[in-house]
Specification:
Layout (H helix, E strand, L loop, with lengths): L3 E6 L8 E6 L2 E6 L3 H4 L5 E5 L3 E2 L9 H11 L3 E5 L5 H7 L3 E10 L2 E10 L4 E11 L3 H17 L8 E8 L2 E8 L6 E2 L6 E6 L4 E6 L6 E6 L5 E3 L7 E7 L4 E6 L6 E6 L6 E2 L7 E6 L5 E6 L6 E6 L6 E2 L6 E7 L5 E8 L2 E8 L6 E2 L7 E7 L5 E8 L2 E8 L7 E2 L6 E6 L5
Parallel strand pairs: 4-6, 4-7, 5-7
Antiparallel strand pairs: 1-9, 2-3, 7-8, 8-9, 10-11, 10-33, 11-12, 13-14, 14-15, 15-16, 17-18, 18-19, 19-20, 21-22, 22-23, 23-24, 25-26, 26-27, 27-28, 29-30, 30-31, 31-32
Helix pairs in contact: 2-4
């Protein structure tokens, strides 16, 4: 999908000059918007005015609704929704800025114009206009949301990222890709059993397929149907994870007997064995800096969480509680690991620091089993699969476990999510 930026007014009012502004018959002494101030704040409030316009758009795709949902996703933005611009409501709620905009049909396209406004100074801080096909309206809205977050916090937002899942289908399982919010789900593999997807970059991904009878590693692109087999052995090859720092894949294989951890290059060559034990080692995950690997081993008698250097040295155990640990994944800053743990007969998602401290259960109030954690690219949320009543859906929750978990899918048949990297 090609987004055409028609108007790109740059941020205005980024200097802290004092001004006297009249609003609603009240004289207010204020400072013009300064993004360096907002970037330091833990949370800000932004009003959302419903977009007006012509052209057929479903209620879910109305830009103001998409943008409100996007910005609300961030733990740093609180949304103040309005039926129309209401400066009194904004002031009452402590919101200094608001988003407004329009949309209209132009031939087969829809032109969307969106603005971030400072209601005290009446300045448009950010204005963007997009001409898109009607089925790409949500993508244009996500693009604007990213630009708002970038302008306020000088950080990239996750709204143009994608999620991969393995989904049950007739006769097996296939890999599907969807937007970060669960919309626009589509199948990208066909036939057999396809599981354990993981991203290489924004578009390329790895996964495990039983196309030839046993689990092997494959490489593909979310925009094509091409599948390239990259593992060749008599045993099973599963649980791939790619490091853009080392340029290597870490994976689990039984090629030498029991389950051990190996690395290879992106094409499956130059294989190195990292673990050597009589136990079963698996579920490896690269640290963001490529220096370490988290993994699961039952060498102590039950599956527990371990970490080691990327050469296989300096192995150390992190967890000592719970009868079964699985699916470790590193936070984007490399300071914590999220994983699945079975305790008191129930699977939950926990996080832990690298020294084994600060263990936190983030799905404590969720019913059913919670498995397969994945960090959002900005580190603010954790995505996971909740299983209950024979249905499996994606949920996301704040990475500290605070607040209510939000459903991402409702199809009831998804597992093993992977989240792409931030769009550059």
């Amino acid at each position: 999908m090609k987004l055409v930026i028609m108007v790109a007014a740059t941020l205005a009012g980024l200097i802290g000059q004092n001004q006297t502004v009249v609003t609603d018959s009240v004289v207010v002494k204020t400072q013009e918007y300064d993004r360096t101030i907002h970037a330091k704040n833990d949370q800000i409030k932004i009003g959302i005015v419903p977009f007006t316009g012509s052209g057929q758009i479903s209620n879910d795709d109305i830009p103001s609704r998409v943008i409100a949902s996007d910005l609300d996703f961030s733990n740093r933005i609180e949304i103040v929704e309005m039926e129309k611009l209401d400066t009194n409501l904004l002031k009452t709620n402590g919101a200094r800025m608001y988003v407004s905009g329009t949309y209209k049909s132009v031939g087969d396209s829809l032109v969307i114009t969106a603005s971030l406004n400072d209601f005290l100074t009446r300045k448009k801080l950010l204005t963007k206009s997009f001409s898109v096909l009607k089925n790409d309206v949500r993508k244009a809205s996500h693009r604007f949301s990213n630009q708002v977050v970038k302008s306020l916090f000088m950080q990239d937002g996750p709204f143009e990222t994608s999620i991969l899942v393995s989904r049950r289908v007739s006769g097996g399982k296939d890999i599907y890709v969807m937007d970060y919010d669960g919309y626009n789900m589509r199948k990208i593999t066909s036939g057999s059993i396809n599981i354990m997807p993981t991203f290489i970059d924004e578009y390329r991904y790895l996964w495990v397929s039983y196309k030839q009878g046993r689990p092997e590693l494959y490489r593909g692109n979310i925009n094509t149907s091409v599948a390239e087999k990259i593992s060749f052995s008599k045993g099973m090859n599963i649980s791939p994870d790619y490091s853009s720092v080392t340029g290597k894949i870490v994976f689990c294989s039984s090629r030498d007997g029991n389950s051990e951890i190996y690395t290879s290059d992106i094409s499956g060559g130059n294989i190195d064995r990292l673990t050597v034990s009589s136990a079963n080692d698996g579920a490896p995950a690269w640290s963001p800096n490529g220096y370490m690997i988290a993994y699961i081993s039952d060498r102590s008698g039950s599956p527990q969480l371990y970490v080691m250097d990327n050469t296989g040295s300096n192995e150390r155990r992190l967890t000592f509680v719970g009868t079964y640990q699985d699916s470790p994944v590193w936070s984007p800053d490399g300071k914590k690991i999220a994983y699945t743990s079975r305790r008191d007969g129930k699977f939950d998602i926990l996080t832990i620091s690298l020294d084994g401290s600060e263990e936190t259960k983030i799905t404590a109030v969720m019913p059913g089993n919670c498995e397969y954690p994945v960090w959002s690219p900005d580190g603010s949320q954790i995505l996971f699969v909740q299983s209950q009543g024979g249905r499996e859906n994606l949920y996301r929750v704040s990475a500290d476990g605070a607040g209510k978990a939000v459903a991402v899918t409702k199809t009831g048949d998804v597992q093993m999510p992977a989240w792409s990297f931030l769009k550059e």
